[in-house]
Every structure is written in structure tokens, then in C-alpha cells.
UniProtKB/TrEMBL annotation:
Superkingdom assignment: Eukaryota
Name of this protein: 2-oxoglutarate dehydrogenase-like, mitochondrial
Role according to the record: 2-oxoglutarate dehydrogenase (E1-like) component of the 2-oxoglutarate dehydrogenase multienzyme complex (OGDHC) which mediates the decarboxylation of alpha-ketoglutarate in the tricarboxylic acid cycle. The OGDHC complex catalyzes the overall conversion of 2-oxoglutarate to succinyl-CoA and CO(2) while reducing NAD(+) to NADH. The OGDHC complex is mainly active in the mitochondrion. Involved in the inhibition of cell proliferation and in apoptosis.
Lineage: Eukaryota, Metazoa, Chordata, Craniata, Vertebrata
Reactions catalysed, as given in the entry: N(6)-[(R)-lipoyl]-L-lysyl-[protein] + 2-oxoglutarate + H(+) = N(6)-[(R)-S(8)-succinyldihydrolipoyl]-L-lysyl-[protein] + CO2
GO molecular function annotation: metal ion binding; oxoglutarate dehydrogenase (succinyl-transferring) activity; thiamine pyrophosphate binding
Chief localization: mitochondrion
GO process terms (BP): glycolytic process; tricarboxylic acid cycle
Family that this chain belongs to: Belongs to the alpha-ketoglutarate dehydrogenase family.
CDD domains reported in the protein's UniProt record: TPP_E1_OGDC_like
Amino acid sequence: MSQLRPLLSRLGAQAVRLLATRDILERSWHSRSSGSPAAFPSSPGGGSSSYMEAMYLAWLANPQSVHKIRGHHVAQLDPLGILDADLDSFVPFDLITTMDKLAFYDLRETDLDKEFQLPTTTFIGGSESTLSLREIIRRLESTYCQHIGLEFMFINDVEQCQWIRQKFETPGVMQFSNEEKRTLLARLVRSMRFEDFLARKWSSEKRFGLEGCEVMIPALKTIIDKSSEMGIENIILGMPHRGRLNVLANVIRKDLEQIFCQFDPKLEAADEGSGDVKYHLGMYHERINRVTNRNITLSLVANPSHLEAVDPVVQGKTKAEQFYRGDAQGRKVMSILVHGDAAFAGQGVVYETFHLSDLPSYTTNGTVHVVVNNQIGFTTDPRMARSSPYPTDVARVVNAPIFHVNADDPEAVIYVCSVAAEWRNTFNKDVVVDLVCYRRRGHNEMDEPMFTQPLMYKQIHRQVPVLKKYADKLISEGTVTLQEFEEEIAKYDRICEEAYGRSKDKKILHIKHWLDSPWPGFFTVDGEPKSMTCPPTGVPEDVLTHIGTVASSVPLEDFKIHTGLSRILRSRAEMAQKQTVDWALAEYMAFGSLLKEGIHVRLSGQDVERGTFSHRHHVLHDQEVDRRTCVPMNHLWPKQAPYTVCNSSLSEYGVLGFELGYAMASPNALVLWEAQFGDFHNTAQCIIDQFISTGQAKWVRHNGIVLLLPHGMEGMGPEHSSARPERFLQMSNDDSDTYPVFTEDFEVSQLYDCNWIVVNCSTPASYFHVLRRQILLPFRKPLIIFTPKSLLRHPEAKSSFDQMVSGTSFQRVIPEDGVAVQAPGQVRRLIFCTGKVYYDLVKERSSQGLEGQVALTRLEQISPFPFDLIAQEAERFPSAELVWCQEEHKNMGYYDYISPRFMTILGRTRPIWYVGREPAAAPATGNRNAHLVSLRKFLDTAFDLRAFEGKMF
């Protein structure tokens, strides 16, 4: 050996020798024990091979062979031939050329033709029991080092690893029939000619086309075909905008004329909502899968330009569809997520979503992830976009196999996608298909990529399109003729032209044609639109009593609960006997009464089972039996709807997106997400801004998700005080300058016109009613509830059954009902407020003896603004100064929202004075004494009846 040999031995070969030696010793021991001859080594003449020969063969045939572990590093994955998919051109010693490896093991080229008996741990032999060393090497390299790169040996399940090895090592597995090749060619024709048609007709329009990865269309169709064959009936897809129109046309099979109509510059605005650009819209379609002749339902979820934001939404919708079908194992419903390489590596929500994949209350039993690996992100080189070798490395955290494949080898792509679909439906686990491709144009069709990637795009301009490559291959081997190929192209071009002609006859393309989650029958009764009314939200007294009884008991026998919890249950029983409720019991009664009416309730978030503030206790834990739990809420009624309460992972972005998707699936469920503290929604802001606030306007997506955000200034510091109500109010779409007409159905019609509802309840009864109203409304709107902390146990924050029984309803405004109403003309000040500060004001008013001079009115619903009820209150106390009092700082909270609306009501004839904390950068102080000083200061101002004398407004 050369002088390099000792160095190589210390590096790559040392581990190889150890593995090989161990393998030989193990086999020798087994052969001695059984009395049978060793499986290897043996030569055709029966003579013994050298030790080095044996070690080399053991290395090749061992299940831990370097080809299986690291073969993907040298696989030919880049269609352009200029980049390394793993960003590293280094070739490990273990994978250098054959002659160098032979020399290292003191072998000659003639040794390559010696025959060896194969161990049972490999599948490369197929039905053959012996192979030459040359053929062994060829087969391993063909499997692991060509156009497919496999990452799976990190999976800690031997059965799963063996399953993958068998799928790829077995000789002949990638053989396709002529019919299969023709189908693949036809799908490629549709994919490429669709892009060409758009480019010809709308050359100056952004399309975010699929050029350079046209194989994605047959790839997705293969996943769907294979999944349908294995029993899947419903597939939910999520994807970014690149290739979206092609997927809509050729995978979901949306009518082409509806897609083309979106390019019409004269397209009139939809009569509801603002709409969204065509490459963000979703779709829902039921059709026959032509390969399996089975029904398949496909939905593509609408997604903004926040590329991976749709991932958890798709998972939530998939989970809900599985739940409603009783598909606990994911045998009927599954999801497919399409990603870009830069986004997959760079956006944290991908990681958050992966970590939901195996949690009991969040698993969808496996997702097929397809990465369109452009090897570039907008203008950013991958070496500047990620620190990991591959963009897909994040998937390794959940032991998902990763199949890299050269996207210019259509047959390899199709085989990999078929295996991926089979993996998902066999093991119910995630799997990643990495389509290593290129982007023929810039980030969009108007962009010039040569500015930043000149060498790459010089190669791309020379690159032969995959359709021509594959067509030439099939023509040369006689599978199709040139005439048949040209006829297939002409046939699809004709389909596009005819659809283009029909699109000219379309009048208004309504955005409702692009719904990704239709709710058939929800918006109508006997074919007529529902009336804009909401029935009373109260329930019979006996229902409240029954729920109170169950909420204070343990339905299971021999179930030992914590002694502290026993006191809590006794307290609930006492409240139920006195027909009063606190916050937790009011929530219990809202949920329980809806379950009785067949409404599924799902509550999710960090620590929601017990409640962050130890007030809820919806899941009881046996103190003596590990993991034995009881959910009394599921023992209320014989035929009740199911209640799901689940602690989430420590994620806000991913989990809120998941619950939003869950709420999309059906209008007949109350889906709630609770933040551990209100301001923790900060890290879920993308879901709030892009989906919840604007979802209906952009995508006509009604959604009834409820956000529970603990809020209140209680001296706990800036991180645990404010749920940032100002943000939600700023995004509310009701007009501060328009004085509405107060019709008989004003309350409900105002709710219908808003983009979401924002409330800050001051009583348990209000909380009870607003939760029930959420379901009883004839439509769905997101509901933002600023929930309390100290009020959870405040002795005054109690409600009686009388405020919750049949005939009662949610009060948008709770007016003054004390001494002040006896002589309203003598009231000198009317203070409007919302939430917890009301109790501070009541206490201070009482201590100063000002009940007859100061009235207090509470806004329970802040947005949409209750113009009608505020006007009534202002008129009821005509001589009173009007004051808005809040505990938040002046530049936060509600003041900037309510002030212009008060001015509209009052016609700017009376001021609405501000009382509260001064403007600040942080939402609260972390010093308890400073908190109490500022509280004392604004309470003094609130009841100083001369505070505003002589001031201008």
C-alpha cells in the first residue's frame, strides 16, 4: 500500500474494519454453533478468500454499509450537474473509486470477478444467492449513488429500515410497463404545456410557474394514485405559490376556464371580500381517480406568501376530517405538504409542525412532504440560506425517511413517490421527497436571475427540458412514436385553447368558486339563506344544575385525586348548590351545554388541561396509578358530543395554525386555543394576521376559532400582563366615522359584517353567553376573548344561574344599574370601561361614597363597536362627563379604538376624557410598588370630579 494507507486507515477505514471484523466474528460464531458452513467468504473453486477480501465483502454487504449510510452524498442529484445537493464536494474515502478501494484492501481487479455467497441481510441479490464482487459493488452503487439518494439509516427501527432497503435494493423494482411510461409522459406533457400556454397568453403576468420542476405534477399524482389504491379517500394539500396554478389545473383538476378567467384584467371584484391573487387561492374538488376508479376528495388550502404558514393549518384540517370520519388511524384521510427548499430549512414553523406529528391529540398519522428543491431561494445561494447539508435535515428529528431524487429522471421520481406514499400508509409516519431541480425563470416571471446567479442560469438556458429528454428516451426505446408524442401535445394544447375561449364568456368569476373548505347546508335552511337572528343563549336551570354536579365529582370508581383538588371540587359543589358560578364553572357550563346539543368542543394550548392558573382541572389524574386520567366533561350525557382538551407542545405558531385548520373543517364545533399568557400570541402573529383577521376577506373562509388570551395589569411585569388588545382592534374593519342605522337585526348584521369579534368579559355569565353565541350565530367569525387572571378567583366576579337560564343572552354592554339610575340627571360622571378594571372602579367609588354621582358602564363587546347601546347610555345621563377608563397605557389598550367611535356617536358635541396610565414603551412595569402607585394615580383621577374642568377637547 502507498504511504497514504496509514492515514486513511486512521480516518475512514478504521470504523469500516471494526464493523467488518465484528460481522465476520459473529458469522463465524453462528456457523460453529449450527455446524453449517459460513455464508462467506467462499470462492467458486471452494478455496478460502483472503482476510482482506472477506473484510471488504463484509463491509459491502453489511446492513450498515457506507453506501446505505452515506451513498446519498455522492448521488447524482443535481440536474444541472454544477452543484452538490449536500453543499459539499468532498467524497469520503469509503466512497472513492473502486480501484483505490481495492488497492487499500490488497485486492486486484481480477478479484472483482470472484463469486461470493450473499448474506441474508442484503436484498441486492434478489433470487440469486451468489454474486461477483464486481456485481455487488455495481448494484450497491446503482441503488444508493445514482439519481436517488436515500437517508434512512438514522431511523431507530430495524423493520422500517429493512422495508426501505427492500424497496430500493431488490433488483428490477424500478421497472415500468409501457402503459405506465405513457401515462407518465402524458402527465409531463400536461404539466409543461400548461406552463407554456400561460407564458404565451400572459407573458407579462406573474404566474410563479413550475418550469424546471414540471415533474412535480406526475409526482403528486403518483402519491395520490398510490394512496387511493391503499384506501385513502380524502387528501388535504398545502403548498406555496410556485406551481400552484399547475397543481390546481392538473392535480386538483379545477376547470381551466376558471383559472384563465383570473388573468382577465377586466375581472370585476367579487361581491364579498377583497379576494386574493390567483396563486394564493385554494380549491375543493370531489372526483374519480382514473387510475384506481375510486372516489377521491382533494382540497388545496389557501395560503399567503408566508410560505410555510399553511403547514399546521393543513395538519389541523386533516386531523378534524379524520376525527369526524372516525378515522383514528388515518386510513381514509391524509395530508400532502409541498415546500420550497429555502423555506423548509429557514422557517421555524416547519420544525414546530414536525413536532406535532406524533403527539396523540395532533397526529395526522403521517404526511408526505414534497420539497421543490430549486437550489436557490429568491436570489439567495443555498450556502447562504442554511447551515445544514440538506434543506430537509429538519425532518430527521422525527425519524422521517428522506428520499432525494434528481427531478430530471422522471421514472426515478415516480418510483420514489410511490414508495413514499406506501411508507406513509404502511407505517403512518412522515416521509420527505426532495425533488432536486432548478428554477428555469427568476423568482417570478418578471425577475432577472442573471443579476445574482449568472453561471447557474447560463447552464439553465442550455438545459434540455425534462419533457424532451423523457420523450426522446421513450421514442428511442420504441415505447411511443414521435407522432403519438406530438398528438398528445396537440391534444392538450387544444384543451387549453378551448378553455381559453370559454373563459371569455364568463361574466363575474366569484371567489366562492375557490373555497377550500365548503360547509354544505350550513348557510341555508330548506334552500333559503338563514335569517340574521340569534336565539337567546341561556339554558334551562336543570341543565346548569346537572353540569355543576358532574363538574364537582369524579365519575370513575376507585379514582384517587389530589387532596387540593378535592377542596376545589367541594367548592364547585357548593357554588352549584347556591346557583352561582365562577369563571371556571361558567366555562364548564358553556362547554357542557354545547356538548349536550351535539357540538364537539376542542380546547388546545399549553397546559390547558389544568389551566395555567390552576383553575380549570378538566383532566383529573389518579394519584396512585400512572397515566390514569379522567375527563368528567365526557361523562355528562349519554349521547353527548365528544370533548377534547389537550395540552399542546410549547408552540404558538404551529398550534394556533393547527387549531385554525381544525376549525375550518366543520362549522358545528367550538374550537378554542388558549395562550398561556395573552402576549404569547406574539409568536403566532403570522397566523393571526394572515389567516384569522383576513381569511374571510381574502378567501371567503368563515372560521369560528376562539382565542382565549389571559390579560390584565396586575404587577406581573411586561411579559405577563397585556394580550395587546390594541393590535386586534386596529385590525377590526368596522368604520369609526360611520354612524350606523339601528335596524331590528343590528346586533347580528353588525357581527356578520365584521372580520372578527373582540370581547373582554367582566362576569362569568358574559363568558358563558359569548361562548354559546359563537355557535348559535347563523355564521362563523373568529372570536378574541381577553380572559382574566385575578378575576378567576375574585369574590365579586361571580354570576348567578338567573343570568344564564333560558331567555337570557350575551350583553354587549352592561349598563349602570345601581343608585345612579334613580336620578340620572344628577350623575356628574359616566365612566365607560371594560374587563377587570371595573372591579377596581367599583371598590373606589364605594370607598369615596360616589355611587349617586358616578355611573359605571361596561363594554363586554368592544368590536364590532356597540354604537346603539353606547348612544343609549350617553343619552341616559345627559349632564354627565363622559370618561373612558382603562388600566392599560394610553398608547395601548382600547382608547385609540373607542375614542373616534364615541365622537361619531356624540357628533363631537361632548368630549370623552381619558383616564388610565400614561403612554409607555413596555406594556407594564415589573415593579410591584410602581404598579400600585400608577393604579392609585388613575383611580384618583377617575373620581376627581373636577379633574377636567377648563380643559379643551
